[in-house]
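pasting for the record
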Amino acid sequence: MPIEIAGHGDQGHPTVADRIGFATLTRMAFDGVSLLPLKQDLTDRVANGTADAGVGLDLALIAQLLGQKQIGLAIQNQVLTHHQLFRSPCAAARPRLRVLALAAEIDMGGNTPIEFLLEGSDIELKTLYIVPGCELPVPLPDHDVAIVVASDSPECGTALAEMMRLLPQWPRPMLNPPHLISNLDRDKLYHLLQDIEGIDIPATIAVDRAQLVEVAESKMPLATVAQGTAFPVIVRPRGSHAGHGLAKVTDATELLAYLGAQPELEFFVSRFVDYSNADGQFRKYRIAVVGGKPYACHMAIADQWNIWYLNAGMSQSESKRLEESVFMRGFDETFAARHGHALARMIERVGLDYFLVDCAENQDGELLIFEADNTAVVHNMDSPELFPYKPPQMRKIFDAFAKMLFDRARRRAERAA
């Protein structure tokens, strides 16, 4: 059955629930604004029957931002069972482009935070959640392009499978096609990129808990269950992100202690790479790929291997910020040029219209790939006083993202003509 799209003059448009939105609420939390008064207001509106589905989804997000993940997911599940289509704020009364994001029912970090990429633009964003057991709205809202924002997480598997089923009959361009997103899973990404010259990507081996227990109890060599990988290794629960359960393990004793603290049944193991520079500092980069071109997102510098931007102390160090600013401003001529072949081949193999890469340089000067995904946050929330070099760089990424959407819509219009 063909997918039906509403025309401009059609009656019976699908009901769209308006939201405060992901970007606005996340920015409030980032800036230290208390979300409790807003949470109470939205809760009161639900209680007195004046709330729509958009209020419910905003309330679900607020609960997650306040650290109440399970409560937030329960609210979200209840909302999405009855309503799947939402509209985010747009800066223009008459948007020049209409984008439909195809999302999965997952926690707040499991879909591309596309609102940040479109902030301040004249692009309308509607989000359609593909929920198992729920039919698509008929007709779908008219749009110029669609983009899949669901991640490679196992929780998104059913939604991605449904999107793959719909892809051949989708009547508009669909960016980040679902069958390519699944290649971002850690072990699949290794097989995709491991033979590219200039790239160092440690093999990511899936192992189960029982295998690791045998290694920890010295009943089985690590190399036997981890395809030749020897200590030290990096261990993490399968499907984890943002450093949850991530640890460096140097021997069987440490592995036994690690398993005592982690209840999961499946894990990823990979060899540890010492990517420190001569000064003893580790440097980790986030690169955004938009329409086939790489852009610098940030550079984190720390004296520990497990770096995230928030634990690197960038706000407290003027010298670190100066180095990051030099990296950003000269990215095309230095880092991107130095790794031009590796980046080009990686972008070609991944094949997505938009994705992000966390990487470093190993001690041989190769591009060391940690992970790639389509859901890491690219934002412009950092203080312009502390980070004056960031707003122009973020604007460059946002403009490139908007241009990519406009170009895909224009190509479709030219083919139709």
